[in-house]
Amino acid sequence: MIIAEESGRYGRAGLSVGVSLCLETVGSILVRYGDSPLLREYLDGLLDGRLIGCFGASEPTGGSDLTGLRTVARRVPGGWRVTGEKKYLSLGLVCDFALLLCRIEDDRGDAHGGLGVFAVPASALSIRKRLRKVGTAALDTTWMTIDARVPDEALVGRPGAGLLVATWGLSHERLSIAGQTVGGVAAATGLATAHLHRREQFGRPLLQHQALRLRLADLSARLLSLRFAVYSAAQGIPVTGACGPRETAALKVTATRFAEEAMSECMHLFGGAGYLEDETPLGRMWRDTRLGRIGAGTDEMMWELVASGMTPDFVGYDELVDLG
What we know:
By secondary structure, the chain is of the alpha+beta class. The chain has helices at residues 2-9, 13-33, 37-47, 162-198, 210-236, 245-269, 282-289, 299-308, 314-320; strands at residues 53-56, 72-76, 79-90, 97-105, 115-121, 125-130, 141-151, 155-156, 200-201, 204-205. The strands form two sheets. Strands 1, 2, 3, 4, 5, 6, 7 and 8 form an eight-stranded mixed sheet that branches. The protein has a two-stranded antiparallel ribbon with strand order 9-10. Strand 2 and strand 3 (79-90) form a beta hairpin.
């Protein structure tokens, strides 16, 4: 979480998101489910900086809808053959290996085996199209085709447990994204606060204009609350049930929506200069922040996860509500 916050504070989302994908999404999966010599080798290389890993789930047919998954893993002598496409493969151009969510098919092509996550080498990835994004230009995101033959030990976890494995990694990524927003918003509000001190209008510093300093104070208060929530959640991750997919989804959607608002407000406080690429970094930071509401699950998917765990208070309802 410290790495997430501090990398976010640099205001370079392409860097912080890339670090998060490698360390949190891929790293957390391998720590928990990487029980073969091959997967342990990948994890060791990732942790000592020799290897870069990426994670692929989304495809041309859809992002969050896994019923449209077309990448398949089929049994072959000595292991598996993995074929298909992944559209939003960030770090795909620079990775040494990729963890890919696939449908497991039997010899007849029936997907009765459920889903699985497989580690494939970078040599099995071919560029179909390099994708140009609105922001985070430093982070390569590529539409790629896959054709790999991998040994049995490339299967992460057990056959059919792919969704469980993916959810574990994505939960860590989502919490990391929340941590990155803490650092990013802290950087933006720090720049905006300095600007209100330095910039004079109507004969006095902008900070002395109540409407401006109270807008910034509101952002700072909400940032303080978010920071406490994020670090509490990080402490709860190792405790079973203390911080699961629902909780990390709630934090991620709350944090990224707040971050988009905060970046816009801080850019606004710079006036016209905030909209100029060569005078302040606020425009870039605002643009990059928008990715947070899409990557690792859209707002709507996060809300669905939260909604799935809402508990009705029927006892209280019966005691306190009388609709006649």
